[in-house]
Design goal:
13 helices, single chain, 2 domains, Peroxisomal Thiolase, Chain A, domain 1, alpha/beta, 12-stranded mixed sheet, two-stranded antiparallel sheet
């Protein structure tokens, strides 16, 4: 719980993104505004039930990951470190010049180093114990992205990992806000990363019926809210924000991209993987985010929806938005049409994109939307091209298996 207005003074001073639209914030923003899907055939998934994904193009840890031995890290940690490096540089921070005990790191992930786990299990099966790398555990333990980032920054404040499935990155940002509001740190580097485009994860999601089977046109497979949606597209990536109190950011003349005005976290308590048809968890999280921002539903101009492109999620989320906002009808987008579902990174990536939306007063379009679902409530979905509009307050929705719901509220910089 938070006191109304607690987070009105939190500034987003840095953003770092590594996504299927490209490495870097500028490349990702350009890609989501172009509104074209990034899914493509994936050779590593050949022969599996679904053979396409949304991968980060041209990612090279040798040049994009700081530190002397990037090859020791799982891809999840590599993506996180690359995004964090950009975010810290964007904020104009020199970690060495900070009081290390006042710098916090909070990163979320749904699966941590699952790629390393699968690879080393294959080596154990094929080659026996001596084939397993002694670096296996430090590479795949879920907390290691946060731990390695703390090592890279020299951060000695709270260093935490959040694991709330596909809401992990958003929950990390909310937890970082709570740490700042409680006075536990002065700077928080927060976000999420995941690299779950692996044979086991892809097969498991396909066996659940969660993935799109649109093999003939993978770039059009992720189609949030469209009547013909048939599942999400598995993706990878990372998003990291630097958060500070606005007074501190102003004192050091830092750029402020947006303000994190509020946050809310709740649970469906309904089903392990299916969303609550009544949307009770999302509704509670939204109400708490608005309460902590000192706002009402009528103040919300835009919602970056969770919008996975699965039949159940999109219909339930649209219905919940209808109940929450009624005729107020904020504009809605889902950037998963472009980026696919980056799992635990999604909430952090979408938080960053929502901050950019209020900074640029521009809403990116939802890719691959052609026909509305007659069984779902109508939402003001932005499609085709970016929409210029006044966005004094925007929400970013994140939902995860287990019923986790996190909503973040952003306002323009003061």
């Amino acid at each position: 719980m938070s006191v109304p207005g607690d987070d009105a003074g939190l500034a987003v001073t840095g953003i770092g993104l590594v996504t299927p639209a490209g490495s870097g914030t500028a490349a990702t923003w350009k890609g989501v505004c172009a509104g074209r899907g990034t899914a493509a055939p994936d050779p590593e998934l050949a022969g599996l039930p679904v053979g396409f994904s949304c991968r980060v193009p041209g990612f090279d840890p040798r040049t994009q990951v700081p530190g002397p031995r990037p090859w020791q890290h799982d891809r999840c940690t590599q993506l996180a470190l690359a995004a964090a490096h950009e975010a810290v540089a964007d904020a104009g921070l020199d970690p060495a010049a900070r009081n290390a005990a006042r710098v916090a790191v909070v990163l979320g992930s749904a699966a941590g180093g699952v790629g390393t786990y699968e690879e080393q299990l294959r080596k154990l099966t094929d080659g026996g114990p001596r084939a397993v790398s002694p670096l296996t555990l430090p590479a795949f333990l879920p907390n290691m992205a946060a731990g390695q980032l703390a090592l890279a920054l020299g951060a000695r404040g709270p260093v935490l990992h959040t694991a709330t499935a596909c809401a992990s990155g958003a929950a990390a940002v909310a937890l970082a806000a709570l740490l700042l509001s409680a006075g536990a740190c002065d700077v928080a580097v927060a976000g999420g990363a995941d690299a779950m485009v692996t044979p086991l994860c892809a097969t498991a999601f396909a066996r659940m019926g969660a993935l799109s089977r649109r093999h003939g046109s993978p770039d059009r497979a992720s189609r949030p809210f469209d009547v013909d949606r048939d599942g999400f597209v598995l993706g990878e990536g990372a998003g990291v924000l630097v958060l500070e109190r606005t007074a501190d950011a102003v004192a050091r003349r830092a750029p402020v991209r947006a303000r994190l005005a509020g946050h809310g976290m709740a649970a469906d308590a309904h089903h392990p993987v299916a969303p609550d048809p009544e949307g009770r968890g999302l509704r509670l999280a939204t109400q708490e985010a608005l309460r902590s921002a000192g706002a009402t539903p009528a103040d919300v101009a835009h919602v970056n929806a969770h919008g996975t492109s699965t039949p159940l999620n999109d219909r339930t989320e649209a219905a919940t938005l209808g109940r929450l906002f009624g005729s107020a009808a904020p504009s809605v987008t889902s950037t998963k049409g472009v980026l696919g579902h980056t799992m635990g990174a999604a909430g952090a990536i979408e938080a960053a994109l929502t901050a950019l939306t209020v900074q640029h007063q521009t809403v990116p379009p939802t890719a691959n939307f052609h026909h509305p679902d007659p069984d779902a409530p109508v939402v003001d979905l932005v499609t085709g091209r970016p929409r210029r509009q006044s966005v004094p307050l925007a929400l970013s929705n994140s939902l995860g298996f287990g019923g986790h719901c996190t909503v973040l509220a952003f306002r323009p910089a003061p």
